[in-house]
């Protein structure tokens, strides 16, 4: 686990990037951790973290010990004795395909989607996760919104008896126009980026990343007279007004996007590479070279009397493929990350990200107040350099988390102040498997640190898997990590978003594993349809059985029709399977 280092030079970037109307001072994590601590609940939490401690050093090192040391964590609530177990189960939601609503604003494959949702109901799923794309709703012109497809989706979920979590996605999806799942930013935003390329993030090589608008221009009217923050706020307000009758009843949660892939982070490496970045062990690049970020860094350096620190990010950080010990900035012994300059830059870089998140949280809290929906935000699961001293991949993403400093607790505190829950992936990943190809990767230790921060700040957690998993071991790992968070004092709220619904989920063996997982998470003896046509079906009611059989019939008929259209030669007698062939894998 990382620990907070003593405060160094205190500075603030508020003069170059604060809200004019805000009465809240702009503070950075090291400052927030001291001044906000008294706002935490008065209940006593004693955190025993003898984790990976080195007898030769005065700090905690991830290099000396295994993941089993995390079992030494103890959260105590003013008493000693066995931990209390939460009695209520954890609901499971399933994320819909990213392209459920087409660019023209209409629902795609509605018959297959309807049958799929009915099947989810029989499995005991609580609801679905619906990504609401900025590039679809406000595609052509600013403040001209088309919610039609999403209204139809919510109505469909309601008819099926499912709840909905909406993800307000202000980022692009896919790798480019040739990607069948490509969803860009709104066209009018891209036009403004063509006029002013500095609206997009840039690294030291001048490479632009257009997944998400640079947070450096949050407060500047760069979008046809509006600032990005105003555009996000207007979008959220219009969403609230459009779906108001359904908020709190059908739509029970809203996750607000805050960066690439919807995560509060910098695009240190492209989102499409994050799924396999641990294989190539990328360090990432600092994204602070657009003119807005550069101006703020320069002003902050001038404010602390060190002009030479304001000419850009670390120039000795190596490249994406270097190991950290081959770089002057990230190396464990004598690296610049652990010098006054490194601390200044990393506090500024992570502080700007924290400020961006706080601005959006403040707007969302005001907009959704009184609607009875739960708000949440997502953090990235960057684990492939967690076992090093400097945690370089986390640093370039904006998380100032090292062997000497906890970079996630300030973020959890900020979410807690605005009533936000925390969403994070990597719940199905296992250290033993990851370390076979990358010895310094540790998704389990990373996740446990994040969950501990959420427990201390008493904020709800939404778990998520990094990529679609269908193996028994991955489901068991999710159960293990959910228990790690849920065991203990109080009544922490945990739920899980399965990522995501595709044709493989409904295949016979995968479906059996999934329904068993849902039952285990819920802690209830719910109905589970056995889709093998050979075993016994034990429904809780006749209506459930009828629903399950009707879903199976529709899905199989759809599959047969697809097979007929593609190749008559493939029409053979075979064991029935629930493969939704019209879904693209996402």
Low-confidence stretches: 1-15, 17-87, 524-550, 562-586
Largest β sheet strand count, sense and barrel closure: 8 strands, parallel, barrel
Strand order of the largest sheet: 3-4-5-8-9-10-11-12
Task: State the helicity in percent bands.
Answer: 25-40%
Q: Approximately what portion of the residues adopt beta-strand conformation?
A: 5-15%
Structural class designation: alpha/beta
Number of helices: 18
| Estimated radius of gyration | 24 Å
Q: What's the SSE pattern?
A: HHEEEHEHHEHEEHEHHHHEHHEHHEHEHH
Mean pLDDT: 78
End-to-end distance, in Å?
Answer: 33 Å
Shape: globular
Number of strands: 12
Notes on the structure:
Helix content is 35%, strand content 10%. It is of the alpha/beta class and 586 residues long. The strands form three sheets. Strands 3-4-5-8-9-10-11-12 form an eight-stranded parallel beta barrel, surrounded by seven helices. α3 (110-123) links the parallel β3 and β4. α3 (110-123) runs antiparallel to α18 (542-566) and α16 (472-486) runs parallel beside α17 (508-522). The two termini are 33 Å apart. Mean pLDDT is 78; it is low at 1-15, 17-87, 524-550 and 562-586.
